[in-house]
Amino acid sequence: MIYWLVVGLIAGWLAGLVMKGGGYGILVDIILGILGGLVGGWLFGRLGIWPAGGILGSIIVAFVGAVILVWITRLLKKA
Description:
With 79 residues, the chain is mainly alpha-helical. 80% of the residues lie in helices and 0% in strands. It has helices at residues 2-18, 26-47, 55-78. Helix 2 (26-47) packs across helix 3 (55-78). It starts with a helix and ends with a helix. The model has no long low-confidence stretch (mean pLDDT 81).
């Protein structure tokens, strides 16, 4: 559980930086990072890509998913 929080925090924070926004706050960044891990894991699995194990691979997968989620939330926020 702590592993998920650490990965989620890092992935959410990185996604907020890359998406050029102020972020949503630490709690929402963690949630987006954890959910991003699920989205990224699903997406990578569908593409047949299996990143190397360890925390770095987990962060990359969660980061990609978190970027997708931040992008979607910002689209919905504008609508």
